[in-house]
Amino acid sequence: MYFSKLSLIWQTCVQGMILCNSELIIEAANPSAERMLVSSANCLAGKPLAMYLPTIKPAKSGEMEQVITEETVSVKAKTLNVCTFPVTITEKQTGILLLLNDVTELKEVRKKLEDTEKWKNILTTVLDTAYEGIVIVDENGYVTTFNQAYENFIGVKREKMIGRPVEEVVENTRLHIVVKTGKPEIRQIQRIKGHDMICDRIPIREGNKIIGAVGKVLFRDVSEIDQLQEQTRRLKQELEYYKGRLRRQQQQARYSVENIIGKSKVISDLKEMVSKAATSRSTVLLRGESGTGKELFAHAIHNSSPFYAKAFIKVNCAAIPENLLESELFGYEEGAFTGAKKGGKIGKFEQAEGGSIFLDEIGDMPLSMQVKLLRVLQERELERVGGTQTIKINTRVIAATNCELEELVLDGKFRQDLFYRLNVVSLPIPALRQRTEDIPVLIEHFLDKLGKVLGCGHKKISSDALEILLNHSWPGNIRELENVLERALNIVDGDEILAEHLPDYLIETTNGAAIVTLKEALAKKECEMLKKALETTHGNVIEAARRLGLSKSSFYEKMSRYGI
Ligand SMILES: Nc1ncnc2c1ncn2[C@@H]1O[C@H](COP(=O)(O)OP(=O)(O)OP(=O)(O)O)[C@@H](O)[C@H]1O
């Protein structure tokens, strides 16, 4: 009876049982052990244990009396937990009993549990760091999750809310309704603690079944959002306004006649000419060395004209690559060339419509372009590159150059016809050395202007320094003077600019080692000769011009250039 019960346990037990002799040869194995280790039954008996469980190393008989081992092994894609016990089979015979548990599923379940725990932690962190208040309910509308932000806002510990019907813990909620209707409610207004909040209520589904709902509340009062929207709208408007102003400023003349500083007769005369020239739309040609103020005069002409409120567009003919100049000036149509913008591009002439276009460094305009410009000036119409349509233009042209255009014409580098077309009103701006009486007023003007810009206040100039500035030949003209003063203001400590604050090269030139270019020397000589000729002919220009072998117009031109 006792044995038959034992045999029943042996046969039906889900645990695998293996009995080995002391040589670790299997004596018997129950059906569960057979299933775990081999596919067919009754195979194990008589086989060495190592064939099936090679890693199991129970202690050898004799020394194993008390030794029980437990190990987890992988066999045939299964995970087995193996315990070994020393047993006494007969008085003389000892052996080992192995108990095998299949823990494969257990291992998988543990892995799933660990994963779930990990995800729970991630989710809790995400929920607790969210800016919005988040509440989750189950399919019956009972609170299961409540995040930190919501807890802080409501001021009740979440432990007190979990497990309660949501309508009892959250004011004006509809989550318990959403779990029934299954319809999401987005961007709804929910009044909580006297504030109108924006909320989303979304049902959670598993297949077709609703297993809960999540509610999200944005902790911003709606009125605050209205204010923010209004603020954004105003800022956008402001931005557009300033963008427009900047655009207009970039396209507008910044200086007027008042900005032209100088009390010499030649400057006063030029200012008068500017005012006269400004009234018409005739083309003006500004001539003079670099830095004499040609651009300043161009601004002043535009600003004194009746169309001062219209665009003033500057084009530096020397700075634009030859192949781009035409499209820059006249614009282009879509597809005119590779790289042409979609929709084409409006040219500078069209941009200046109704206003003025300032063609700086005109002497550097390539010949090929000169022909096209001449045609536009004559016809007062243009065609965009790649276009067929003729566009009428109503733009005042102001050109400037520091080149001797007559010489360029003689050299075949500048078209004579274009020269005449441009030279309708000619304003020769004299070099600074030809109007030294302007130097003190210009110095005062720049000390004032730069003092404000640099934030160092109005500094004075010592008589020594002034002497040096008056004696310099100023090849870089007013631009050079401005730079010298800016440099001095940057290094001066006290209230007065001294000789030592001026660049060495200025001091050297005053000490007698004057460096004068050939052009300057010739100009000086030419001026002297004109004056002499006028003196000897008692101011008779025709006679003076004849004596010097010049035409009347070119004599006048030179007189004007030298401020005679
Ligand atoms: N009469 C003046 N009064 C005040 N500032 C002047 C005067 N003439 C020139 N300037 C200033 O000198 C600097 C150079 O002038 P501008 O750029 O007009 O010279 P430019 O003859 O056009 O030179 P470039 O030929 O090199 O282009 C500018 O900062 C300008 O404001």
What does this structure look like?
This protein folds into five domains: 2-102, 2-Layer Sandwich (Beta-Lactamase), CATH 3.30.450.20; 108-219, 2-Layer Sandwich (Beta-Lactamase), CATH 3.30.450.20; 257-428, 3-Layer(aba) Sandwich (Rossmann fold), CATH 3.40.50; 432-515, Helicase, Ruva Protein, domain 3, CATH 1.10.8; 520-561, Arc Repressor Mutant, subunit A, CATH 1.10.10. It has 22 helices and 21 strands. It has a five-stranded antiparallel sheet. A five-stranded antiparallel sheet has the order 7-6-10-9-8. A five-stranded parallel sheet has the order 12-15-18-11-19. The chain is of the alpha/beta class. Helix 21 (541-547) crosses helix 22. Residues 260-262, 288, 290-296, 360, 402, 445, 478-479, 482 line the site of adenosine-5'-triphosphate.
Question: In a few lines, what is going on in this structure?
Answer:
With 564 residues, the chain is of the alpha/beta class. The chain is built from 22 helices and 21 strands.
Itemize the secondary structure elements and their pairings.
Layout: H1 2-12, E1 16-21, E2 26-29, H2 31-37, E3 69-75, E4 78-88, E5 94-102, H3 104-129, E6 133-138, E7 143-146, H4 148-154, H5 158-161, H6 166-169, H7 175-181, E8 185-192, E9 195-206, E10 209-218, H8 222-250, H9 265-279, E11 284-287, H10 294-304, E12 312-316, H11 322-330, E13 331-332, E14 345-346, H12 348-351, E15 356-360, H13 367-379, E16 381-383, E17 390-392, E18 396-401, H14 405-410, H15 416-422, E19 425-428, H16 439-454, E20 460-461, H17 463-471, H18 477-491, E21 496-497, H19 504-510, H20 518-536, H21 541-547, H22 552-561
Parallel strand pairs: 11-18, 11-19, 12-15, 15-18, 20-21
Antiparallel strand pairs: 1-2, 1-5, 3-4, 4-5, 6-7, 6-10, 8-9, 9-10, 13-14, 16-17
Helix pairs in contact: 9-10, 16-18, 20-21, 21-22
Bound molecules: adenosine-5'-triphosphate (ATP).
